[in-house]
Specification:
By secondary structure, the chain is an alpha/beta fold. 39% of the residues lie in helices and 19% in strands. It binds 1,3,4-trihydroxy-5-OXO-cyclohexanecarboxylic acid (DQA).
């Protein structure tokens, strides 16, 4: 089983970006740790990061067209969480189960972060657990797919 893990804008700067909010791990390290966890769960991950909304839309569409057995999506849409109708529509369009992830708890930060345009088209949302948010999301998604 293959799961696509997408990270949106500015997450390529993890490690040095606002470490008091996002921690000190780089995205590369988070992905490496997640790949090891995926192995324990008996699945494989493909990771993708882009700062460009359209590239994220293309990647989501590709996951469906691939025919390579991508079964679901873990996505941290970053700032696009709060603005992107295009990413929301892409997730709806491909009808692959998706879980929204945030490193920080978006519900106890600025008002504008509390609203997600993406969450309503996802099976769930995990926020606030640092890098563990990705692991929790992956585990939840894999269990969901296995029980579907
Ligand atoms: C984030 C939260 C977003 O509000 C923010 O724009 C990000 C990161 C998180 O993982 O906590 O870039 O998605």
């Amino acid at each position: 089983m293959k799961i696509l893990v997408i990270n949106g804008p500015n997450l390529n700067l993890l490690g040095t970006r606002e470490p008091e909010i996002y921690g000190t791990l780089t995205l590369e390290k988070i992905n490496e740790n997640l790949a090891a966890y995926a192995k324990e769960l008996g699945v494989e991950i493909e990771t993708f990061q882009s700062n460009i909304e359209g590239e994220i839309v293309d990647k989501i569409q590709q996951a469906k067209l691939d025919g390579e057995g991508c079964c679901g999506i873990v996505i941290n849409p970053a700032a696009y969480t709060h603005t992107s109708v295009a990413i929301r529509d892409a997730i709806s369009a491909v009808s692959l189960p998706a879980v929204e992830v945030h490193i920080s708890n978006i519900h106890n930060r600025e008002e504008f972060r509390k609203n997600s345009l993406i969450a309503p088209v996802c099976i769930g949302q995990i926020a606030g657990f640092g890098q563990d948010s990705y692991k929790l999301a992956l585990e939840g998604l894999v269990n969901y797919i296995k029980n579907a």
